[in-house]
Amino acid sequence: MKLRSTKVWIIVGIGIFAIVLGSLYTLYFREVGEREQLSESLSVAEARLPGLTVEREELENRLAQATSLLNKNQAEFPESVESIEYGEDLFEIADDCNADITSLTASTPTNQKVGTITYSVSSFTVVVSGDIDDILDFIYAIRTGDDFQLPWSAEVTGVSIASGTATIKLNIYGYKR
Length: 177
What we know:
- The chain is α+β, with helices and mostly antiparallel strands.
- It is 59% helix and 27% strand.
- Helix 1 (6-96) crosses helix 2.
- The radius of gyration is 41 Å and the shape is rod-shaped.
């Protein structure tokens, strides 16, 4: 069948034109929908921007404070290491005396100057359990300093013994170079 009639060509042309127009219409409204969605997202983002800017400034301030605190604490870190080493010595002394340290609390070291020598002084509270003889051996070992591995000495400032447990308060003096 030949399509020679102009009416047929007009109908086919109108059909193709309608299909193309329908496709463009669908595509256009799809793009309009995306544009509206992007516009809404942009509005939400613009509304959140001032709050996020303030939050960022607060976080930067907190970071600066944390950095300052870190630097301050790092300056004190070597003294803290000494306290850890003292604690290790105390646990070894307790082990040698057959006593068990159940609690060890240390204060922040302070400096004490005697003449031209500066000492690092740390206060400790040590709770020891065991036989009364083992506890007394532990206290004696601390007072005489025989088992210390580091160059430090201790001054026992208080002892409380009750039913196989002793709470010992002591100051440890370490030589600062």
